[in-house]
Amino acid sequence: MKKFVNDPKNFVPEMLEGLALAHPDTLRYVPAYNLIMRADAPRTDKVSIVQGSGSGHEPAHVMVVGRGLLDAACPGDVFAAPPMDYVYETTKLLATPKGVLLLVNNYTGDRMAFDMGKEMADADGLRTEILTVNDDVAVTDSLYTVGRRGVAGNFFVIKAVGAAAEQGAELDDLIRIGRKVNDVTRTMGVGLTACTPPAKGSPLFELGADEIEFGVGIHGEPGRERRRLTDADAIVDALLDAVVPDLPYKSGDRVALMINGLGGTPVSELYLLYRHAHQRLAERGIRVGRSYVNEYCTSLDMAGASLTLVRLDDEIETLLAAPADAPVNPF
Amino acid sequence: MKKFVNDPKNFVPEMLEGLALAHPDTLRYVPAYNLIMRADAPRTDKVSIVQGSGSGHEPAHVMVVGRGLLDAACPGDVFAAPPMDYVYETTKLLATPKGVLLLVNNYTGDRMAFDMGKEMADADGLRTEILTVNDDVAVTDSLYTVGRRGVAGNFFVIKAVGAAAEQGAELDDLIRIGRKVNDVTRTMGVGLTACTPPAKGSPLFELGADEIEFGVGIHGEPGRERRRLTDADAIVDALLDAVVPDLPYKSGDRVALMINGLGGTPVSELYLLYRHAHQRLAERGIRVGRSYVNEYCTSLDMAGASLTLVRLDDEIETLLAAPADAPVNPF
């Protein structure tokens, strides 16, 4: 295993400690619950937005805490859901009179932890809602999921509800906005290499020298099929052929286009993928109104990328364009 | 080779085309000279700041073009200096009454191209200056260099002169500021894996399963020595032991601390490195005033990282804190 790591069991807390040390004015780390929160949270004048997930997907979600985005992120260990009592304690810490919106990507473990955490918080009389994200078109059910998985398209939900919450929107309106964005968002990914979890110390699965996992999950779960590695443009074509008909995105639509790196792929290659996707969408009469090329939701050190489309309308586009600050990415 | 690439000889132009397509309001691509420039450049009220280098180091430098940063970047092919006539044409296109500042990292090929390009521009009566960056403490001379190499610390020079140029500073003052920042900036890197150039299709050098290249260059050039892979904290200690005494940085100093990923290392690991560096500096009485944890200057898909320190004073800190926009990183 060639990684920067000390004792693998401290991988997550050491990363979180580093994150808080690097951003002392804006972020606070609460070791007892593995929690990263905005230094100014909870703010009584807004709904708090919280997301949890396994670690190993950074910047998701601990590095998406900031103005106009998440108020807190409550991660589990690498590729493991956060404990339900951490979800509960996080919800209590972030509680405001306007409520707490809990975002969950659709994985069975995460959903269980959040359902239980919410139930405990509700028993305390707190006002909470859960919104589930499931943008991945690759498979219906998978290794860790009943139904579609939540992957990089999650960021558009965060950005939209984060912006609306900053403007004072109420909890029920945030649920409406979040569902609306999730409903017009579709993603598909491709893995070129396997990732290596620090505690395992070896690749999570085997991929041949000329094989790619088409529709890969962000924990290395199998996708639709193993394919031969082809040139970049052909890979983009295949991703678009899976994503575009799924909604479907149609001629005349304007979209946000995200090319998300999975952790081990340099940004140069992401822009090369972006180029062809943008051109192919133009040929289909689909106009790219907003572009996102970066790492948003990774799978440790996996080489690979995902492609996300969001169908824009004026409300969504305005929310996506609102000011936001996060440690790693411009939003 | 497991990369997103079409014909390797189109790797750079396709990436640049994607970059311009993704940022149509702010960037313009001039294919004739491999040039990325601000859409609003040249602005007659400011000095234009231009940097060129080999490609493969993205975001350096084509993704550092924007407000308060570079006005243009003129890249060569992967790990190859830009042709001198591209430097000349870029300088002509960016010429303003206040002049053009050409930034060059210290590699023999880049310096030759920029010296010749400048000479041709000067013969046309243009006002130009060259500023050379050489922040890498690893080696004195190297495979492509007489004297120290310019690596990720380059970004602090760009940010400082970019901010000052935006505020209307004259060419001679930008030279003063750039030299001052370069003089207090030191970097050292470590490579865990080799990188694979698209046109070569195989790793550029060999590293054993438990070997690291300590002091590696951003083209995979040898550093100080091959070492055994140790835990992350010990690697940080070794980097600090090389960087801190070199200026030296002393108790009472306040610094900017950058942990830069080399392309294949996820941001989670970078924050883990940051944590220990921040703590060790505090033990030495050195206070971190500004933090940078991200990919700034990569070596294609190499796993690894570099550590940079900049000794801050009020002038440098104010310039580093000035507003700036770039496609990939918050600055």
TrEMBL record, chains A, B:
GO cellular component: cytosol
Domain DhaK: from-to ranges: 7-331
4Fe-4S is among the record's keywords: no
Keywords attached to this entry: ATP-binding, Kinase, Nucleotide-binding, Transferase
Protein's organism: Actinoplanes awajinensis subsp. mycoplanecinus
A GO term, aspect molecular function: glycerone kinase activity
PANTHER family: TRIOKINASE/FMN CYCLASE, TRIOKINASE_FMN CYCLASE
One Pfam family, short name: Dak1
Protein name, UniProt field: Dihydroxyacetone kinase
Domain of life: Bacteria
Record keyword ATP-binding present: yes
GO biological process, one term: glycerol catabolic process
